[in-house]
Amino acid sequence: MRASEIRKLIQIKPAELDATRRRLSACHDIADLCATARRLTPRPVFDFVDGGADEELSVRANARAFRRWQFRPRTLVNVSAADTSAAFLGSVVPLPLALAPTGYTRMVHPAGEIAAARAAQRHGLPYTLSTTATTTIEAVAGAARPDLWFQLYILRDGGLTRELVDRAAAARYRVLVVTVDCFVTGHRTRDRRNGLVIPPALTAKTLAGIAAKPGYWARMLASPAIGFANFAGHDVVTIEGIGALFNPAITWDDIAELRACWPGPLVIKGPLGPDDARRAVAAGADGLQLSNHGGRQLDRTVPPANTIAAVREAVGPDVSLLVDSGIRHGSDIAVALALGADGCAIGRAYLYGLMAGGEAGVDKALDILAVQFKRTLQLLGVRSVAELRGAGRELLVKE
Ligand SMILES: Cc1cc2nc3c(=O)[nH]c(=O)nc-3n(C[C@H](O)[C@H](O)[C@H](O)COP(=O)(O)O)c2cc1C
Q1: Rounded mean pLDDT of the chain?
Q2: What is the band of 5 on the pLDDT scale with cuts at 50, 70, 90?
Q3: Taking 90 as the threshold, does the pLDDT of residue 101 lie above it?
């Protein structure tokens, strides 16, 4: 081989000097983002995101439920113009995906809720702000304008619940998502074992953690104190304090009341089967988010993925049906849609991104899922989400 030929073969890229960009460019799927997040984040914080309730049977079952479906693709279809856009809850999105609500997001990374909302906006996706957010309803709406959804926990104090709903409406959140699976908080075993304290405190264990993960702590110590931002002035400081506000006495009548005062689309997050799905629609819901809270509440619940087909049959074609819990790949989204969902939502997938690289990490997680979903559509031989929904079970074989 001549020297000129050898030179052509050598492709040395200039070194990436920005550490975050370098790390993110080495992440090729959500599992890579998760591994990077684990490396960079103190264990109690990583486990707060990654862990689930009790024995974590549901956490594992959720992911398995998507993966037990295999594809039977159509071949020799011209998929050069495959279109991944979808419609639910009265809006069109470039990808059938929403960012699910996650509490205490600034503990994961100080960029927190605003970073996630900005990344959602760049991708044209809805972002759901949690009741237990660490940034206020108004601050998120002032800093980013994706399609904003507000997630509500119904509280013992009806006046405070109503105040949250009114603030969300005043800040022009479009969709109200009422979570119905968390009126009593689940037993997060890893958090107990790790002695996780919310808000984080400088204990001997934390000080040891600072030495192990200096980047995380440097960011944390340079940022404003973390708290349950939407409860300022209500003396809610600890996670136990917030749990005590949840109302274990709620019933479907409370949903009907909320329906009467919320002008936009109403979603019930947490029904897991046709009976509760029908009740939610009867109480006035426009959409359902099938969810077991990512396996963080009642362990051993049926994986939401396994309930899609029966719920769709029960509620008919006009109710917007989203599913979350266990989505880690664009092909999981394709499975959900082929089974009858209109869209999916993610929690941990974007939080791993946030831990791995702040706002750029959330962008990376959304990029990964978008590319994976499009490639899956094309390799399945379908040209649009409508075609995927129409073909349905024809494309799926149970393992
Ligand atoms: C760290 C964390 C915090 C969460 N906080 C909330 C919350 O405040 N409100 C809520 O309705 N769901 C909450 N969830 C559940 C998510 O909205 C979503 O249902 C779940 O993460 C989906 O499962 P996945 O993580 O496997 O995608 C949280 C999930 C995680 C991982």
Answers
A1: 94
A2: confident
A3: yes
Pairwise CA distance, residues 16 & 14, whole Å? 6
Residue 90 to residue 264: CA distance in whole angstroms: 10
* 199: preceding bond cis by omega (within 30 degrees): yes
Between residues 5 and 222, which one has the greater pLDDT? 222
Nearest to 134 by CA among 232, 53, 42: 232
Tell me what pLDDT residue 197 has: 77
CA of 104 to the centre of ligand 1 (A): 10
Give the N- to C-terminal CA distance of the chain in Å, as an integer.
50
Catalytic member of 28, 109, 123, 293: 293
Q: Which residue has the tokens 């370098």?
A: 22
- Kind of pairing, strands 396-398 and 69-71? antiparallel
* pLDDT tens-digit readout, 114-172: 999 999 999 999 999 999 999 999 999 999 999 999 999 999 999 999 999 999 999 99
Residue nearest to atom 13 of ligand 1 (CA): 102
Instruction: Count Cα neighbours of 283 within 13 Å in the Cβ-side half-sphere.
Output: 25
Q: What is the mean pLDDT of residues 244-267?
A: 94
Region for residue 301 given its phi and psi (left: phi exceeds 0; alpha: psi -120 to 50; beta: otherwise)? beta
Q: Of ligand 1's atoms, which has the minimum distance to the CA of residue 347? A: 21
The answer to whether 136 touches 110, Cβ cutoff 8 Å, is no
Instruction: From residue 268, give the alpha-carbon distance in Å to each of 38, 143, 196, 244, 347.
Output: 32, 26, 30, 22, 16
Distances (CA, A) of 156 to 47, 167, 227, 241: 29, 18, 20, 12
The residue to which tokens 């760049």 are assigned: 122
Question: Could you give the CA distance from residue 236 to residue 48 in angstroms, rounded to a whole number?
Answer: 20
Atom of ligand 1 nearest to the CA of 108: 1
Q: Which residues, including other chains, have CB under 8 Å from residue 72's CB and lie 6 or more apart?
A: 394, 395, 396, 397
pTM of the model as a whole: 0.96
Query: Average pLDDT, stretch 362-376?
Result: 98
Looking at the DSSP bridge assignments, the partners of residue 289 are 269, 322
Q: Which residues of 106-120 are buried (b: 16+ CB within 10 A; e: fewer)?
A: bbbbbbbbbbbbbbb
115 CB-near residues (< 8 Å, 6+ apart) = 109, 354, 358, 359, 362
Q: Whose CA is nearest to atom 20 of ligand 1?
A: 294
